[in-house]
Design goal:
Strand order of the largest sheet: 1-2-5-4-3-6
Mean pLDDT: 93
Low-confidence stretches: none
Strand content: 35-45%
Helix content: 10-25%
Order of helices and strands: EEEEEHEEEEEEHEH
Radius of gyration: 16 Å
Distance between the termini: 30 Å
Number of helices: 3
Shape: globular
Structural class: mainly beta
Largest sheet: 6 strands, antiparallel, barrel
Length: about 200
Amino acid sequence: MFTGIIESLGTIQEIKKDKDNVHITIDSSITNELKIDQSVAHNGICLTVVSINNNLYTVTAIGETIKKTNISYWQTGDIVNLERAMKLGDRLDGHIVQGHVDQVGNCVLAKETNGSWLYTFEYDSKLENITIEKGSITVNGVSLTVVDSRKNEFSVAIIPYTYEHTNFKNFEIGTKVNLEFDVIGKYVSRLYSNK
């Protein structure tokens, strides 16, 4: 379980394919605090630490994870948003994030708006995921509030701190992002669709 508040950034050092799996080695300032078998969200994808070597650690993504996320677009040198699992008793500053990506979205607008930044993302509405204005959404692991919601797209606005401390500063039109829709909204949507 995560909150969507990014703790650190990591740099991908190596991507190694192994049958349907991919082993991803990352350099991060939080590596010395990690343990093998620990869950860490990488751009919103919950992945397990399988090895640690000095300031580098490795996680493995299986075929199913690769199909539902933007991992297939990752390259050596890419910057990823990192968040360790939340501790019980800590404040929940973002919203409830599972680290289970629902689908990949596409950035269709990225612009500076006099001190903040506005981003619009398209997604496949056939998968029955929904957003609502003032509702929560997770984009590459970042907990955000939806400012504008339409059938197959939504917009978010971010403050300078978020821009500087996440990989949003690298987004441009066409960037593929991981989307996790609000878990409460998913349950409500499923209840109504089963009527």
